[in-house]
Amino acid sequence: MKDNPLTDPEPVLRYPWDVPPDPGTAIEVAEGVLWMRLPLPMKLDHVNVYALDEGSYWTIVDTGFDTGKSKTVWQQLLNGPLAGKPVRRVIVTHYHPDHIGLAGWFQAEFGAELVTTRTSWLFARMLTLDVQPVPAPETLAFYRDAGMDPAILEKRATERPFNFGDVVAPLPLGYTRIQQGSVIEIGGRTWDVHIGNGHAPEHATFWSRDDNLVLAGDQILPSISPNIGVYATEPMADPIGEWIEACERLRQHARPDHLVLGGHKLPFTGLPFRMRQLIDNHHGALSRLLDYITSPKAAGDCFAPLFKRSIGEAEYGLALVESVAHLSHLYQTGLATRIRREDGAWAYQRKD
Q: How far apart are CA 136 and CA 217, in angstroms?
């Protein structure tokens, strides 16, 4: 699909709702489709979740963190907007804790079926079982490779790291797999499953055949770009390449009238325009970065061209893994070289 910003019917994003639902309340965004929000204890302070009416029960899409506050909000939703009908199925778009955090709770407490991709289930179950009091040696080595600020590295070496098990309920054995090309019935509609990548491996998105709805998780967000990072689990991953490939593939399905129900921010229309933005944003970041590394620089040195704003300690970790991802993409596509610095960090330089 070739898009022309001068002739597209909707070359800008539009937001049918200016204000999100309050905790414990819901907004009906389409017949039998409720938009709800769960709180998150971080700068991005919410996650969107959805409920689709199946007649005698609900299917929900994504769940929020496993916290007492989240469970309280869910109880308000179950007793209020969900009208006392049970949740019998939980669909998870990807394995990140704000999306899968309470899936196991719904399975254990309510007998719900869990539907997700194989990679999402395996990653989440693995990480919930891997609780660490301090960072693993491989993680610290990865931070050194990335050129982490020495003061931050020293502090992190003795602190308890973020553990999935702290905010993700245990996942019982058993789930139902979806994959690219799957077709699934949800809320009286038939949906095609298209898999994204980059932000999370095998991220599921759902495209209704019967109306204009797209359940997009974090693969497609309206006003922010999801974090795309490389981690110690797979230090030579290329999520930037996977992200661009997935966006190029998904944009072939995009229509201006699609109502995109994402994992954060507001529902929106204007999807072809947004897909171009998401792709162009990373091509632009790669171009700025390539101009910046005319002399060798580690990931920790490259925040300025990528983010164009000050990065504080709270955002440092996410910024670092995203910087690694962009530099590694340039290296793996032959546009940059890398050498070991004396401090052990990989330093990348534009290839002449």
A: 30
Q: How far apart are CA 35 and CA 263, in angstroms?
A: 10
Q: Name every residue whose Cβ is closer than 8 Å to that of residue 89 and which is 6 or more positions away in sequence.
A: 54, 57, 58, 59, 60, 112, 113, 115
- Quickly list DSSP for 27-91: EEEETTEEEEEEE-SSSS-EEEEEEEE-SSSEEEE----SSHHHHHHHHHHHHTTTTT--EEEEE
The strand pair at 113-117 and 176-178 is best described as parallel
Tokens (6 digits) for 92 = 């998870």
DSSP reduced 3-state for 153: helix
Kindly report the pTM of this predicted structure: 0.94
Label residue 12 by pLDDT band (50, 70, 90). confident
Tokens of 192: 């095609």
Give, for 184, the enclosing helix (H) or strand (E). strand 183-186
State the Cα–Cα distance between residues 250 and 207, nearest whole angstrom: 10
Residue 143 has pLDDT above 70, yes or no: yes
Q: What would the pLDDT profile of 257-271 be if each residue is shown by its tens digit?
A: 999 999 999 999 999
Q: Which of 244, 182, 256 is nearest to 214 (CA)?
A: 256
Comparing C-alpha atoms, which of 252, 228, 243 is closest to residue 325?
Answer: 228
How is residue 275 written in tokens?
A: 């897909």
- In sequence order, the 6+-apart residues with CB closer than 8 A to the CB of 247 are 196, 198, 275, 278, 279
Q: Please, which residues have CB within 8 angstroms of residue 64's CB and are 6 or more apart in sequence?
A: 38, 39, 40, 47, 49, 70, 73, 74, 98, 99, 101, 102
